[in-house]
Amino acid sequence: MALMGIQLVVSLLAASIMQKMAPHCSFARWLLCNGSLFRFKHPSEGELCALAGKQMPKQNRRDRRQNGENKPLTVPKDIDLHLEKAPVNVIDALVLRFFLEYQWLIDFAVYAAGVFMFTECYYSVVDASKEVNIGAIWCVLTVLFGLKTLHTLMSHYFRSEEGGERSVCLAFGFLSLLVAMLVLVVREDYLEFGLESGFSNLFDNLEVFARQQGYADWSIPVTKLTVKLGLAAVCAYIGALLAFPGLRLAQTHLDAIQMNSERPLIQILLHMSFLSPIVVLILWVKPIARDFLANAPLGKTSVTLVSSATFDSMRLWIIVSLCVLRLALVRYHLQAYLNLAQKWVEQMKKEAGRIAAIDIQRKVTRVFCYLTVVTLQYLVPVLLILFSTLALKALGDFSWCMGAEETPGVTPALVMPTAAPVMPGGVDEDEEGIEDMEEDIQATVAHLSETFTALRSVLTPLFFRGFFAFLTWWVAACQVISSLFGVYFHQYLMQN
């Protein structure tokens, strides 16, 4: 039996198409350059001089520097300046900061979603329980690449000369560490991640595996307290990564609400999108979610509205639907960010004094230069929640069909392939070479099968359920903390 079968072929085909089609057809490039987003062009010195009511100096800026004139061209702040709008095109997007990282990650996520949907259809038609789920591997890789991208953005903040961004990341990291330590001591009766049973199952399987390998006296030298401390450190790191995405989400949300003040339906959707991480948090609070539906109080008795397996499927569908909603509203948030250039100009007009023309040009240009950074800060947290949920479904043996009873346990062992028997009789050198090659291939497949068998016997669906449920919940919790603080900061602290 093939180790991965048709899934491996589809996975390799998807990787090849992604590599070949990226320069010609890119979803990430289309998202920014489909003509729906408009940027603001910075005014030239001639336009600023005309608005200020004076003539443009005959010498340009470079000539003034060469002649020793370092005085910048200044104009009054209250000039009647209106920025010119232009649609974002491919040429403009190619020079944006972190554009290549943005394009690669978003395109990889799109192809990962395609591979996952194929594997789900494949598993619904064919009994492939003995094959490795390639779609789950793509989902896990998307989560890892998303964290790596956020790490790259945070490294950019740490290299900042001002140092304020570094302090914000560290502060949210320590706050996340404190919150994670509090969450990890909450009993499973309140937060039903399944971490306790998952890690207990992992340790038991590791000891059994060690005994099978001949290490009879070997035991796990790690206690549950050590594991929780390590997990809390990882949570603090994720909290630091999601600090600025949450703050940016709060700013773009408030601006998008103001931008669509005359469109109540869009405002409702924007509020639903902003509050969606809170819904994700509630879905794992057992007394509010599962107990309310499974044992709904009705007088002195309780009524079961949905079964436990149905609730698990409902939770997956709700999270995926909320992620799709947030992805569908990305254009409103990005346009709200681009409008900051005009918003800054309107604020400048209310001030007195003069300002250098180069400062106006820099302020307007800087907004557009960080467009891909803001796009990543909006999309990556959504992708983390979405693909960790998809990995939870695939690796945790859940079902999309409501009512299907699933019992997580140890995945059945793979059938070890056996070498084909050698037929008696004389063979020439070419046939011997072919047979040697076939034996090498069979030995390699057998070795890989044995490796995956051991891995699947240690990392069971019970462990994956606890791990990815907690990861999904924690990413949503970090977004709630940082975005709510961002709303408070932009609504009250900035105004004061």
Automatic annotation (TrEMBL):
Pfam families: Tmemb_161AB (PF10268). It comes from the Eukaryota. Keywords: Glycoprotein, Membrane, Signal, Transmembrane, Transmembrane helix. Residues 1-28 form the signal peptide. The chain crosses the membrane at residues 135-155, 167-186, 225-244, 265-285, 367-392, 467-489. It is a multi-pass membrane protein. The keyword Transmembrane helix applies. It is found in: Membrane. InterPro entries: Transmembrane_161A/B. One of its GO terms (cellular component) is membrane. Belongs to the TMEM161 family. PANTHER family: RE42071P, TRANSMEMBRANE PROTEIN 161A. This is Transmembrane protein 161A. The gene is tmem161a.
